[in-house]
Protein 1
Amino acid sequence: MGTVISQVTTVDVELRINATTRQLALDPRTTLLDALREHLDLTGTKKGCDHGQCGACTVHVNGRRVLSCLTLAVAAQGKDITTIEGVADGDQLHPMQQAFLDHDGFQCGYCTSGQIMSALALLREPCGASDDEVRECMSGNLCRCGAYSNIIAAIQDVRATHAHEA
Amino acid sequence: MSRSKALGAPSAPKVLGGKLPRIDGPLKVSGRATYTSDISLPGMLYAVPVRSTIASGRVVAIDDRVARKMLGVRAIYYRGNIRPFFRSGPAQGFSGLIDEKRPPFEDDVVRYYGQYVAVAVAQTMEQAKAAADAVRVQYAADAHNVERRLVAEKSLETDSERGDAEGAFKSAPVQIDQTYVTPTEVHNPIELHATVAAWEGDRVTLYETTQAVMNHREVLYQMLGVPKENVRVVSHFLGSGFGGKLWPWSHSILAAGVAREVGAPVKLVVTRQAMFETVGHRPRTQQRFRLGATRDGKLVSMQHEYLNETSILDAYKEDCGEATPFMYSVPNLRVASALARRNIGTPTAMRGPGAVPGLFAMESAMDELAIALNMDPIELRRRNEPLQDESTKLPFSSRHLVECMQVGAEKFGWARRDPRVGAMKRDGLTIGWGMATCSWGAMRSDAQATVEIQRDGTMSVTTATQDIGTGTYTVLALVASEATGIPLDKIDVGLGDTTLPPGPISGGSWATASVIPAVSAAARAAVRSLLTLSTSGKNAAFAGATPDDLHFANGRAARKSDPSSGVPLGDVLARANVRAAVGSGQSRTTFGGEESRKYSLHSFGAQFAEVTWQPETARLRVSRFVSVIDAGRMINPKPARNQIEGAVVMGIGMALFEEARYDKRYGAPINSNLADYIVSTNADAPAIDVTFLDYPDLVLNELGARGVGEIGLAGTAAAITAAVHHATGVRVRELPVRIEDLLRA
């Protein structure tokens, strides 16, 4: 029989999420994803595989897209974390959110938070201009409903009309 | 002329058929739509099952001494220390369905890898996971069977037969006799299956990832042994399911059971790995397809003999012959099938069950026949277009398959096709073109709905069906708005809760067709109720008038003869001292109904695929796709188009990527994650051109609308493998297409 960790206490963790600082006492094994979902009621970020393979848990850490299921919460301290809940300006949707809505860039909506977080990060990445290049840059975010064409249309729409805001 | 056009479709509705965004869209793009595993309740505990690490044998002993003493652990449950679960009785129609019928812990026998043998309950997810890993299970393993080559457990049984198929085949001048294989496919919705169970006394609420809340309650109350009215099932948003979330799975029963034992709400989220083991899959099929034809391409014989794998205990049949008897005109036909038992989890319906693997075989065989005849594949199908459903001798309610092929051919540019293998080139790549036809049943099930028009001018629409991403929330708001004139922003649609009027399953592509008539009737009844209120009682706005003298428009009741006489609906209700004008509506099922005795009800379509092939690097891509669908009227074309595009994307996965493989040594699905079980990514999705023919099927419902959730996947893989053959000369009869196959080119 292998060694079993049977007694684990919590560690204090301070996370800055959507410009708000949150204090938590977490099991050190807690991922950033589970901290958001199970401890902070920020459930817009989704769990699809817990293995960094589907992209549903994508958030921004210091402005770059990161898979929150592969990030320990303790390792995200002192960094700026943005989740889907921090994207809109109050009730005013971000242009990327509005574009996903206008282009029907989803069906069930479960992967959508991760798609939008990746799409927003992509605006600041050296992704080429063509649809094919955007497809490549968005291929870490699986959409089993297959709304890929509409996702690309939404992103290209935003890139064409809001490039200066990125 | 089509029958539906001859009948005369209703005049074009005002709001239907437009390009409106989904009404639930703002919630989905802002992360505020609440899915099952988003639910957290005060005092909630987490459950993590322990999964068997053998595929066949017995549990000899379970040692939980370490696990149950770990920090935060509340309990470890297994057979013998938890109240046993019952089996649910036989299903009645589409109520009470469950594919894996054995409840967890019923006996100590293990019949597949990953079967639940215990469950850990703890305060946090991390603690429960660590405790589940610390439970020591001792097994007595037996030999297991996860063989890929399927062997029938019994002789084949005939599903459909006419004429002398064997005799006609033997004497046919041109013969095709091939075996086609489709692999084990896993639904893999991105949302993990999950249950949050909360008891209050002897009543339980289950927040559940289900495509069928009513069915879920019907099964769970029986398995838990409580009165039906004590079980409430809620599914407000579903991260899709593709059939995998139609019927209950063991985790739901486990979650409800352990929540009852520990006396606290429990959340159980199934891992991606476990979703390859315990929540169903499309079973592997092995289909021998034989065609006999004359030299001018008239079919004289069709034989479809198929096997599908199933689990040891459950006889799940993948109905591959679903479309075979009616797709083409052929006087001699036989469809027969049998099962092959395996030590695997129980299979279940996956998008287009039966028809999707069945049409892969049939349409591949038709393509091979066209090549053998040196005939255009569209021309071959045109020559075998039936005048009626030859299996039932019934007319089709609406069939425009030939037009689908014509329109598709024009859009695709099929006339420019050079049929010689490898003859077409572009940008240094070899181009392959292929086509196939498709079909899916057009059905309707029982549904009820309630509409309430409130004094403030808002309206609620409720029915216990679900929106799994198909746009049900939006379609129902559109239909209710159409019937009442109340604008969309004043309509609230409530779905996914067993406390609402019983609605249909979100499956079979019939939720839309079933609910529309019920909601439409309920909305009309609510308006009628409002008009009746405005003519009766001492304060009536239109005393002395009859409801037939009045109409309701722009939120006001008015005399038809004098539109300026309008009274706001709020006043009508206030004068009558009534809170809201309420209407109920229902629709009946077509299963066994009059329509299905008079008509053969199906949707049809044609799929055209282009692949590019780079022999130097064995690189194959699907570069272009045209899909033409004859599925009645599209109530909301935008999500409908999205459904077909998404199905084509899944079809590319079926053709080129997807297969769950069982490891011979341990019997485990070995590629049980999203890196090794490959689904289409954004970069795999080509330009997809979707056309709806828009012939309303008025036999099916008043708006002539059929569902489109499944048909887009049918025929897609066959069109792609036909294109692969055209490009490479390699005929792939066992999916998915592998580089190893293409290296034979």
Protein 2
Amino acid sequence: MTRRQFVLRRSLQAVFVICLSYTLVFFALFALPGNPIYNKLHNPLNPLPKSAVKPLEHYYHLDDSPLQQFLVSIGRLFRGDLGFSLVSGNKVTDLIGHAIPKTVALAGASLAIALVLALGIALLAVFSPWRAVRNVVKLLPGLFLSVPSFVLGFLVLQVFSFDLGWFSAIESEGAKSYVLPAITLGIAVTGPIAQVLITGLTKAAREPFVTVLRAKGVPPMTITARHILKNGSIPSITLLALTVADLLAGAVVVETVFNLPGLGLVTQQAVRDQDTPVVMAVVVLVSAIYTIINLLTDLLYPVIDPRISVIGQKRPRRRPLSARRAVGA
Amino acid sequence: MPTFSRRPLALGAAALLIGGSTIAAGCGGSSPSAAGTAKAATGAPQHGGNLIYLDAEIPISAQVQESGYWQDRAILQNVLDRLVYRNAQTHKIEPWIAQSWKISDGGKHYDFVIRKGVTYSDGQPLDAGSVKRNLEWQINGDKKNGVSPNPVFPRKATITADAATSTVSIDLPEPYAPLLGVLTTWSAGLVGDKTIGSSHDAQALFKNLVGSGPFTITTEDHAKKYVLSTRKDYKWAPESWKNQGASYVDSVTIIPVQEDAVRLGTLKSGQAQLLRYVQPSEEKALAAQGYDVVARSGVGLSNQWFIRQTAAPYLKDQRVRQALQIGIDRQQIVKDLYTPNWSAATSVLSPGTVGYKDESAKLAYDPDAAGKLLDEAGWTGRDGSGYRTKDGQRLDILTYIDVFDNTAPALYQAIQAQLKTIGVNLIVRQTDYSSYNAKAWGNPKVATLRTGWPDPDASIDLENQYGGAGTGALSYSGGDAFGLKNSDPKLNELLVKPLSAPTQEQEEQDLGAIQDYLIDKAYVIPIFNDSQVWVAGPKLHDFDLTDGGLPEYHNAWLSS
């Protein structure tokens, strides 16, 4: 299979996964107790009259059977029409489009922080010449994992915004607005990445090729940077891919604490309110994010380690020893 | 009402934890403000500044007929003018866009003389023709654009406008006593033709709201920020407003911050000047630290539980229901869980509401009398846990903690403990926001449900909540909140009566009769009078609340 065939095949698989997720979530929403219009009507602050129920249901096709509603939503989806929020009446494309830039910026900054931290921790934990430093640094991933992001978020807000006044807790300050939430989120995802990286580097450092390189007199820095890091980071790349998807779709706690209404907050509110059109749009988006990132990860493996073949190329057969001898190999 | 928050419990707990630490860094002490009024100005009001206000919830929709959520009301209140204004102190109705009015023909004919020189924010004149289009839009809705009729308006009316005399007339087929009160509310706000003519979805956006109020919405960054900018040419405020010109502040920035601790920390660090809702436990400490805790118990229904008689056969017994009614110590609950900004319910309606009647004598806590009533009803046995039994059946009352109020879990637990002392087993269950209606309202075995929140007109609200032919939320589940199955025609008769009262005096009498009936029959268990609580920073002065507890920024000013 060529690389192009591989990409095509995985793209088709991605479309299948997205369709399956969409279908399953759509019908799962019907299985849940409650009804978005019913919820809206029973909210004590909602002035909607009983007489408004029918037009609303008709407008959103809620009086059709689940299958009919599904077909209507699929038809709209193919036309690029994601519908309107059942709660606010806003266009779903507007809600999602509004949230995505904040989420992407936050996820990007968090990931950069997590990568720097995880790499620093892993390198120190594996290569520090002082045993005490290695032992202490190895505790950090566990510590990061055990501190809930909302606690850390409140603490950094208290110190850097409320006490020192360096950052606004509420106002948009451009890139500065993302510093505290990115640190909070970055620390939260550093733990697992650092742990996997420590294990990978430790294992790679014990490989025979490292002994050979040392014997050849290759400088330790070069061995670490060009060989151990490259070989030892493969497992953490898989984790990193999953982390990216999580950062894009699941940063609801940090978004709430730092008043950054991104995709996580939109998702949380839509699920809470059973706002079907918004939930479905998020499902499509998140499925697409996951499958695209998985595809990119698969394509990245052979770049980092040519021994890995994800596209099923046949490896050149090793010549028989006798043949190699014959040509003086 | 405390707040409409559905935050994860973990977040709430952390908020409390960290919130406590923010409170510790306080400033000088002072006493809380009088109810509903911010601290008195200490000098001449200063112009300018951006008032940053932190709300507990994200605004949902600006569509006028559907704008019932608190955070939506709070915006509309400041952007849209109304024909008439209800004075929060005197509860009297005053001229606003209508400079005068006349009611005749036994309450079936209204004439409003429209003030001249008023304009919408886009320059369109607010004249008799515009008022006519607004009233027709409210009463009839707009089918083409998917806009429903406003349920608080009369269902039928003929509107005429006379440009020469600048008069708008409303002719009703039958009297509709709540009309004048309805015209004071946020949802009767007058909007320009641009808003009326747009689609339902366009109307849902705040930036598309064209009003004639003291503020216009200039920025809408969904869920992040809403900026209300002052109209410099505003000069048609109600007579009772201290400020008759443009608002003192240049703008009001509304920022939804859902976490209690973040709201509080932001206010205390001086990054904002006003917030809505703090935990009752924090109110006293904040007041002691010099913050202005501004609260108002909104008019409308008191916070109450209603009893569904179909949930268990013994709930049809009036003595059992009465025992529940007097087996709850409301004063103790308010003392233990709330603050002086809250009060125990004394009727089905809150004090200050048109037609309120004090029923506190009938609701006085009397566990001995409650016990006697239950004895008389045959609940004389006791099980191992001390709960009453009758013919081997335990006296169980199933309820669900409502999801609209952060203080609800503690409230339900307190009532559970009090009812246990008279031998009633209150079974309290909890669920999440999205399934609350299905599990609590949809479950016929649930015996009591909580309702009753501030609302501008008690006649409409009572009929909506408890009437068989109601137009509101509860009637969606069949219009039989008490599970009476048409066995009490007198109730429906009483509930519709104030709606068509020809005079306010008659409406008040009719409302009094409803309160008597609901309490005497023990259909309803009033709990407490709901309050809206605000905290203002030291630089904010003359911040007012309406009688429904909505903010009015027009008179507010910031000191330098």
